Amino acid sequence: MNSPLSSATPRVYTPVSELHLHAEHLQAQSLSDLLGSGSTAAQQRANALAFTFGSLHIDFSKQRLTTKTLMLLKDWAESCGLAAKRQALFAGAKVNTSERRAALHVAARWPSSETPPEGMESAAAFCQHQRKRMAEMVERVHSGKWYGATGQAITDIVHIGVGGSDLGPKLVSEALADRPSSAKVNVHYVSTMDGAQLLPLMECLNPATTLLVLASKSFTTADTQFNVRTALAWLSHALEVDEATVCCHQLIGVSSKPEKMTEFGVPEAQQLVFKEWIGGRFSLWSPIGISVAMQLGVVCFDALLEGAHAMDKHFLHTPIEENLPALVALVGAWNSQFLNIPTHAVLPYDGRLKSLPAYLQQLEMESNGKSVGLDGRSVTHATCPILWGDVGPNGQHAFYQLLHQGVHTVSADFVAVAQRAGVGCEKINRSLKAQEQLTLAHCLAQSQLFALGDDAIPQALRGLMAQGYRGNQPNSVVLLKTLDAWSIGALLALYEHKVFVQSVLWNLNPFDQPGVELGKRLATSLYQTLADEPVEYQNVEDPSTAQLLHKVNEWRK
Ligand SMILES: O=P(O)(O)OC[C@H]1O[C@H](O)[C@H](O)[C@@H](O)[C@@H]1O
Question: Which of 124, 185, 215, 226 is spaced 20 to 30 A from 534 at the CA atom?
Fold first, then answer.
């Protein structure tokens, strides 16, 4: 006998439609409801939403979701073919379809002691060879055997790069700067195209003992080219040698374009190469990271790669329901696509991670800040949220007011470090420990307040103290046991794979960045307009830009 339902039009089931229905259903429940007040169910939910991998722990229990949500999200990932696409990424398939190339940043951290997956062998061997050459250069500087143009040993490195050639190495240098290391040199990062970061360095560094690292995948980026020209002019002038001589003694080039480095004057022995199949924002692990190795030592750089590699293997082999990068990606996609939350804050509770928001802005927004899918059609759903943030405790004194009582819903990652190494002095250590404790307490309190709002106030005091804290702001707490090289490597690789998983969910190519090109072209023609006299205003179509050009020229005379 037919069931009474069999004649009805069957409902078209897709994981996405199911997730939308589930989201509607969940809207009725606040985070206060989900976190419960000591109920067993709430406790079980919290337990099921916390995950540990090595020295990383992630707690999703303050996200607006249940274990059922995670199961539905997992179905969605499976229906998008995540497992096969993950395999293809590691096997060197041409996943960057618009540029017809692989995305093999994972090869840059594949250790020589382990057989790489089929398809990655030659890439891993190439990266290992360059890593060896990089280590030799670092050793030459550390042992005092790299001499500048006037015969003095190197004391300072000026790393000149921008975007992916700057943000990753700078973040790691800052994060690990307080560690005892074998470093014999100081490292300074220069990225802004106006030369503002170079000027003070030119005032205080010794030109005879300064080595430039010109880091640029394309070797054409104007910001970097102009900075390096100014730096070479400074060294040449100060040392009374020509620029070619400076290049021979005090310049290392890192790029995917060896021919351009040669044309520029970087001697072949001072060139480090990575291939096109490592994207700029994924290039920290390549010789782009040389300044980290210069500052902190090769052992430390290797530990960074080991942490990233451990995360690669976890990502490659772990089922989705326990796979940290996949879970972070799914939770992020849930917030933007199903809960319609348009912005995501990254809030490190550790001053050493102050550049994490900027690093993740490039990684996530340049990768998935797109609206045209792999099929060439406009997507009909949300993609990457606007990512922003700052050091959490400082943000508390600035923008948290809006997060607690404003009108916007925001999701957040709180990133905290459980313990830090002490210094030699007992008295200072005690004081530092108290600061560590204070910071962690603030991190946990803010995460709680984001989630619960006024409900964070104990029941008995609620009537007296309620102040309109909105709560219901979903957030994850990412806890690192210590901020060591391994942990930061694992953390950054986790976010890299998050980006990849989200690109699979959203059907995007995360490895190109076509939207950044036109601005550069427009600037090139405006550059000419500003350089030539008289200025050809009639070439500038819009009156706003024309009048600004006029004003700029008037004030530059
Ligand atoms: O390393 P480079 O070729 O100098 O590129 C530096 C940066 O500039 C570009 O505009 C891209 O948007 C970034 O993805 C890249 O990391």
Answer: 226
Answer whether 323 contacts ligand 1 (Cβ < 6 A): no
Angle between helices 298-317 and 121-142 (to 10 degrees): 160
User: What distance in Å separates the CA atoms of residue 105 and residue 366, rounded to the nearest whole number?
Assistant: 16
Alpha carbon distance 259, 251 (integer Å): 16
Residue 127 region by backbone torsions, left for phi larger than 0, else alpha for psi between -120 and 50, else beta = alpha
Tokens of 502: 């989200």
Q: Which of 171, 218, 254, 359 most suits a substitution to test ligand 1, by most atoms within 8 Å of the C-beta?
A: 218
- Bridge partners for 273 per DSSP: 255
For 543, residues 6+ apart whose C-beta sits below 8 A from its C-beta are none
Helix (H, G, I), strand (E, B) or coil at 504: helix
Closest residue (by CA) to atom 7 of ligand 1?
163
For residues 372 and 375, what is the distance between their CA atoms, to the nearest angstrom? 8
Q: What average pLDDT does the segment 305-330 reach?
A: 98
Q: 223-227 long-range contacts, Cβ below 8 Å, gap at least 24?
A: 223/162, 223/191, 223/192, 223/193, 224/160, 224/161, 224/162, 224/165, 224/191, 226/193, 226/195, 227/160, 227/190, 227/191, 227/193, 227/195, 227/198
313 C-alpha to ligand 1 centroid (Å): 28
Alpha-carbon span 304 to 491, nearest angstrom: 10
| Among protein residues, the one whose CA lies closest to atom 10 of ligand 1 | 516
With bands split at pLDDT 50, 70 and 90, how would you rate the model's confidence at 1? very low
